[in-house]
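Please fill in the sequence for the structure shown.

STRUCTURE ENCODING:
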């Protein structure tokens, strides 16, 4: 598959749709304008790649809606050099957005097929996280903690304690919490023991797979 001026036009359109839905962060909109989303999904869905929709990828998973990716990215106020842990690599599209925002990204995926596929694919496009990890997001990544930001891109039945523990003071955890639908929930670490919690509306994600012991 190639990236053409037609794709570029569709991406500019998508950025307009996202702006109308409340995505005002220019850096996030520029990432959407730049990243060839059609290359992240099965070629049979290519014509849909720039609609604001979720799509199936490998291993019964989905690439999140562009709005959801943009909303999470905007909410995290990503700064140059932020150390970010991403739970749920999936297609790698969210990872690419974080990298366009100049974050240092550690990305965990629980399904081996997706881990393999995406860790080969993203670097080919020039997107290089610090590390791809095949593992369990419920545990976070203690050996690289603490993080400025942690983003969860699967629906979590509850807030895993290790993720809160792995935040810097001043850091943020953004996690969709719930079963069938989720409430996007932001935790800001105010001190070693205090967290501020904000609820930011309803979203729909595939479930975060159960903890392995
Ligand atoms: N950001 C991705 C979202 C993919 S959907 C994208 O836009 O493509 C959620 C992803 O989370 C899936 O790839 C799923 O396999 C992964 N996942 C589910 N439970 C997980 C867990 N416990 N740890 C790490 N990844 C998990």
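FILLED IN BY: designer on duty
SEQUENCE:
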């Amino acid at each position: 598959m190639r990236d053409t001026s037609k794709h570029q036009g569709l991406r500019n359109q998508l950025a307009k749709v996202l702006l109308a839905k409340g995505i005002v962060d220019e850096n996030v909109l520029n990432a959407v304008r730049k990243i060839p989303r059609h290359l992240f999904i099965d070629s049979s869905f290519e014509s849909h790649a720039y609609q604001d929709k979720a799509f199936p990828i490998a291993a019964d998973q989905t690439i999140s809606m562009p709005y959801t990716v943009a909303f999470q990215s905007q909410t995290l106020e990503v700064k140059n050099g932020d150390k970010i842990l991403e739970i749920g690599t999936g297609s790698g599209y969210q990872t690419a957005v974080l990298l366009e925002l100049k974050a240092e990204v550690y990305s965990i995926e629980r399904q081996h097929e997706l881990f393999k596929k995406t860790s080969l694919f993203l670097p080919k496009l020039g997107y290089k996280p610090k590390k791809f990890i095949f593992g369990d997001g419920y545990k976070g990544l203690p050996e690289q903690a603490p993080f400025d930001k942690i983003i969860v891109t699967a629906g979590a039945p509850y807030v895993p304690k290790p993720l809160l523990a792995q935040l810097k003071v001043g850091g943020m955890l953004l996690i969709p919490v719930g079963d069938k639908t989720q409430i996007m929930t932001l935790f800001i670490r105010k001190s070693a023991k205090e967290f501020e919690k904000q609820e930011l509306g309803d979203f729909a994600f595939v479930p975060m797979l159960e903890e392995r012991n």
